[in-house]
Write a structure and sequence with these properties.
With about 110 residues, the protein is an alpha+beta fold. It contains two helices and two strands; from the N terminus they run αββα. The chain folds into two domains: about 1-65, no CATH class; about 65-110, no CATH class. About 0% of the residues are buried.
């Protein structure tokens, strides 16, 4: 029964790849949070040191931008010749984007 062991092996590999791809999202977000926390800590230490030394000009340092504070309403219309395949190839394609995008200020992000 060599076919059965090959099938089991391929199913195990598919499951391992699926688990790795799923966990990649969580690991990436965790690293992003640690980078943001590190930068925020550094900025707060710089502000505290500046305040201790009597330097008020540095107190307006902005905090790191967090993409969850972005709001947008953008629609996209595509026209032109497109062939099916991977990757998708296009000929004479036009993309028209309309809408708006705003971000809250850095002070609102914290």
């Amino acid at each position: 029964m060599p076919g059965q062991s090959l099938t089991e092996l391929s199913l195990c590999l598919v499951m391992i790849v699926a688990i790795i791809l799923t966990m990649r999202i969580y690991i990436q977000r965790s690293l992003q949070a640690k980078y943001k926390a590190g930068a925020d800590y550094l900025i707060s230490e710089i502000k505290n040191t500046a305040a201790t030394q009597g330097n008020a000009n540095i107190s307006s340092i902005k905090q790191q931008y967090d993409p969850y504070y972005r709001e947008s309403n953008i629609s996209e219309a595509r026209s032109g010749n497109t062939s099916v395949g991977f990757p998708e190839t296009t000929l004479d394609q036009r993309v028209i984007r309309t809408g708006w995008e705003t971000t809250r200020s850095a002070q609102d992000a914290d």
